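Researcher: Sequence recovery benchmark, item below. Answer with residues only.
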């Protein structure tokens, strides 16, 4: 499985785009990240997304946010303070 996540990237932003941290309405205004997941992990995340009625991208983003929160690296502004 190859999943694509959207992330803000200062290098990829074009002039006139919103600054990092602001709401972005255009999904093409953010850089895409492609990743490969082992089959069992891909299956589990797909099943979780279906059970939670989320898109695969939303489910993966939530899982990463929860991981980063436990590591005290999310939200980003709180991680910089600590």
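Model:
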């Amino acid at each position: 499985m190859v999943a694509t996540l959207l992330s803000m990237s200062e290098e990829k932003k074009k002039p006139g785009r919103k600054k990092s941290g602001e709401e972005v309405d255009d999904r093409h205004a953010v850089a895409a990240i492609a990743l490969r997941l082992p089959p069992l992990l891909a299956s589990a995340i797909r099943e979780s997304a279906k059970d939670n009625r989320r898109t695969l991208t939303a489910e993966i983003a939530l899982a990463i946010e929860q991981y980063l929160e436990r590591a005290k690296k999310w939200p980003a502004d709180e991680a910089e303070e600590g």
